[in-house]
Amino acid sequence: MKVAIIGAGSLGQSIAKGLVSSSTLTSLYLTKRDLSSIKGFEDNQKVFLTSDNALAIKNAEVIIFAVQPRHLEAILTDYKSVLQKSQVLISVITGFSISRIEAIVGQDKFIIRAMPNTAASVGQSMTCISSNNKGKEKVELAKTIFNSMGRSMEIPEEQLQAATVICASGIAFWMRLIRATTQGAIQLGFEAHEAHELAMQTCFGAATLLKESGKHPEEEIDRVTTPSGCTIEGLNEMEHQGLSSSLIKGITASFEKINQIKTT
Ligand SMILES: NC(=O)C1=CN([C@@H]2O[C@H](COP(=O)(O)OP(=O)(O)OC[C@H]3O[C@@H](n4cnc5c(N)ncnc54)[C@H](OP(=O)(O)O)[C@@H]3O)[C@@H](O)[C@H]2O)C=CC1
Ligand SMILES: O=C(O)[C@@H]1CCC=N1
């Protein structure tokens, strides 16, 4: 599979890192205007760096657009004449609808909207996927691509903004929780590096327990909370201070904002 990533910034590079370890990849073109920050990819013989988007597009079967929302319209307009009907166009861009992409490049193109996250770089992305009518034929291909860097789920396009908040912004939300736990552990006497490791591995353990057991979080919580013990004391104080409420409010604020992000 020949892939191009147009706009190899933060997310584009995460996807690239996930892709280079995929056995199905034959070549990967990465584009951006200033190539200095992605020179490290040159060590991989399958990867080509260029500022020439047309060159990258011509050399790809799958084109992943990962520029900022306000840049996509101009890029699609500039390069639509180079696009082939057989190519699969994947946009990971927030808030730019499939119908707007179709209006520029045509309904006869395979169009996928995907929302991965930066954990793609370590093979642990959660990627949500939608498509246009024509693109339905290529959803399995898109899932194969994103499954190679984590897990994927096909969802209706109307839910893609919500999925962005939960899965893409969600990486930052979880990181902040890990950071806060680390600060708590330092206050309890651990060195910073020890506190960080304790917080990370405990977070990883909690997620793995739920994934492997298929249980509801409260069932696993019940297994930890000894009556009159320290866990329930801590949990109840966190809830008195609004832990769940603050998370839910943060998620809904993020969702309100995502619907206002300018894509022009
Ligand atoms: N970061 C994240 O975790 C997530 C981001 N997204 C979405 O992904 C998109 C990218 O986000 P992010 O990676 O954070 O943004 P970045 O700004 O890090 O990346 C965008 C890249 O596009 C490049 N670029 C700009 N214009 C062009 C052009 N004409 N041709 C080629 N490359 C160009 C820029 O590099 P240069 O200036 O050198 O050209 C830049 O590195 C956004 O639409 C965002 O909404 C979605 C989910 C998660
Ligand atoms: O913060 C943002 O707007 C983008 C979309 C999700 C992650 N980064």
From TrEMBL:
Domain of life, per lineage: Bacteria
Statement: the UniProt record of this protein carries the keyword Cell cycle: no
InterPro entries, per the entry: 6-PGluconate_DH-like_C_sf, NAD(P)-bd_dom_sf, P5C_Rdtase_cat_N, P5CR_dimer, Pyrroline-COOH_reductase
Sites where the protein binds NADP(+): 6-11, 66-69
UniProt keyword terms in alphabetical order: Amino-acid biosynthesis, Cytoplasm, NADP, Oxidoreductase, Proline biosynthesis
Positions that bind NADPH: 53
Catalytic activity: L-proline + NAD(+) = (S)-1-pyrroline-5-carboxylate + NADH + 2 H(+); L-proline + NADP(+) = (S)-1-pyrroline-5-carboxylate + NADPH + 2 H(+)
Pathway where this protein functions: Amino-acid biosynthesis; L-proline biosynthesis; L-proline from L-glutamate 5-semialdehyde: step 1/1
Its EC number(s): 1.5.1.2
Classification via Pfam families: F420_oxidored, P5CR_dimer
Enzyme class: oxidoreductase
Keyword Amino-acid biosynthesis set for record: yes
GO molecular function: pyrroline-5-carboxylate reductase activity
Similarity section: Belongs to the pyrroline-5-carboxylate reductase family.
Functional description taken from the UniProt entry: Catalyzes the reduction of 1-pyrroline-5-carboxylate (PCA) to L-proline.
Matching PANTHER family: PYRROLINE-5-CARBOXYLATE REDUCTASE, PYRROLINE-5-CARBOXYLATE REDUCTASE 3
HAMAP family documented for this protein: P5C_reductase
Protein name: Pyrroline-5-carboxylate reductase
Lineage: Bacteria, Pseudomonadati, Bacteroidota, Flavobacteriia, Flavobacteriales
Name of the encoding gene: proC
